[in-house]
Design a protein that fits this description.
heterodimer, A: 299 residues, alpha/beta, five-stranded parallel sheet, 10 helices, 27% helix, globular, B: 145 residues, mainly alpha, three-stranded antiparallel sheet, 3 strands
Chain lengths: 299, 145
């Protein structure tokens, strides 16, 4: 069972309007059977300070990452997690979060690895919901656990590994980090903790498009026209391109992956979640410093 | 330094966290986050005196004061960053009333010993590690001056 789609005019311009809902839509549909709202934030405690009524929390780090191996959870772990949150395989899931839906997009991308079909983002995220004076609660939601099937993760379609990126050089790459990280002045986002990369710079030929350029001032996604101007116009992406996006640990690039795939309709877009913390520390991979994209190295 | 010599308040906080299951540790951190006092007026009016904790993902500012050899730590963090906000009072309360040397002797890995890695992730615990390191650095500068 799946909830009706949001027919907002802005969304109709996107390649996949069914991937977004407005705050109005969500306010009207809260509590509907077959719909589960998920909050996913950078700050692991933010949900506890107040959340959309009925929303459950999924934390990107403690819930979606394997506790030992640097990888995502297994099919069994994902099934146990979703079942415990009252999410069935055919549930419509609407995810929202802080920081322009940065972590919400990451969670959505992980849901995609497991092929959860109907998963959407709340346009504008947590901040817009609050800015509009909509209801928040600290009451724990009443969740009835359900059975979620064990589905093996399929990394092939939307996830790239280091070797894939090496083989991909010469095809479009989008670096969504800050200009300072791109040029090699620093290895971390401004005002973010050091996450350990030994070299600074970017992957040769990658275009620099900081992820937040896809967001409008109120945290919603920019319009189709504005996004096309950036990614097709400025960067030069074309239909049929095979694209890989990366950042530092794959979170900011999930946001860009969402934009390229669901909003602009590029069919082959992968997120390199190893990103700079892997590439910047790996032995003998090519790196370019400075503001230029650089050349594909001779092999 | 072992548990026997860890300053009493810090040892007590650690025991409190470790006595709880992972989920309740988050709740305790949230309680700490609600306990962060407002800055004394002299700092509220002088944001330039505060040092930014770069290891934290959210804007956290802190200042260490030494009064008659006794350490006081002040910090501020936004309400939208409850995790970071929770770290500050753990240290501020734990350090209150200690001598400079006692603070310098606190093990640098105290934040890792609270059992929070599982609850909030090791990455986030680094914010508190940075706060402690910066506190000690400010104190060393103060002594040298």
């Amino acid at each position: 069972m799946s909830a009706e789609f949001d027919s907002a005019a802005k969304f109709a311009e996107y390649a996949h309007p069914e991937r977004l809902v407005t705050t109005e839509w969500l306010a009207e549909h809260l509590g509907e059977p077959g719909l589960v709202v998920v909050e996913s934030d950078e700050d692991v405690l933010l949900y506890e300070t107040g959340h959309i009524p009925g929303a459950v929390k999924i934390d990107w780090h403690t819930d979606l990452n394997d506790p030992v191996v640097r990888d995502y959870v297994s099919g069994e772990q994902f099934a146990a997690l979703l079942g415990s949150k009252g999410i069935a395989r055919d549930t419509t899931v609407v995810i929202y979060g802080d920081k322009n839906n940065w972590w919400a997009a990451y969670a959505l991308w992980v849901f995609t690895l497991f092929g959860h079909e109907d998963v959407r983002l709340l346009d504008g995220g947590r901040d817009l919901w609050i800015a509009e004076g909509r209801e928040l609660t600290t009451d724990a939601p009443a969740v009835t656990p359900v059975e979620y099937p064990v589905v093996e993760r399929d990394d092939a379609a939307v996830r790239a590994f280091k070797e894939d990126v090496l083989a991909h050089l010469g095809n479009p790459l989008v670096d969504v980090r800050s200009p300072e990280e791109y040029s090699g002045e620093r290895t971390t986002a401004p005002a973010y903790p050091e996450e350990g990369a030994l070299r600074a710079g970017h992957i040769p030929t990658a275009a620099s498009v900081p992820w937040a350029r896809a967001a409008a001032a109120d945290g919603t996604f920019k319009t189709r026209e504005e996004l096309d101007a950036i990614y097709r116009g400025e960067v030069g992406l074309e239909d049929g391109d095979d694209i890989i996006a990366y950042c530092r640990i794959g979170e900011r690039s999930s946001h860009t992956w969402f934009v390229l795939n669901h909003l602009l309709g590029f069919e082959k877009v992968r997120n390199y979640d190893g990103s700079w913390t892997e590439w910047g520390s790996a032995v003998r991979v090519p790196i370019v410093t400075g503001a230029e994209r650089g050349e594909v190295p001779a092999r | 330094m072992d548990a026997m010599t860890l300053p009493a308040k810090l040892a007590e906080t650690r025991e409190d966290f470790l006595a709880l299951g992972v989920k309740d540790r988050l709740q305790l951190l949230l309680e700490f986050s609600n306990e962060l006092p407002a800055l004394p007026e002299r700092y509220a009016e002088h944001p330039d005196l505060l040092e930014r904790v770069e290891e934290c993902q959210s804007p956290v500012f802190m200042f260490v004061e030494v009064d008659d050899g006794i350490v006081h730590l002040y910090a501020t963090a936004p309400a939208e960053s409850p995790t970071t906000r929770g770290f500050a009072p753990i240290l501020a309360q734990g350090l209150e009333g200690l001598t400079v040397q006692e603070v310098l002797d606190i093990p640098a890995d105290y934040p890792q010993s609270l059992g929070l890695a599982e609850a909030v992730s090791p990455l986030r615990v680094r914010g508190m590690t940075g706060m402690l390191a910066r506190t000690k650095r400010q104190l060393r500068e103060r002594i040298a001056a």
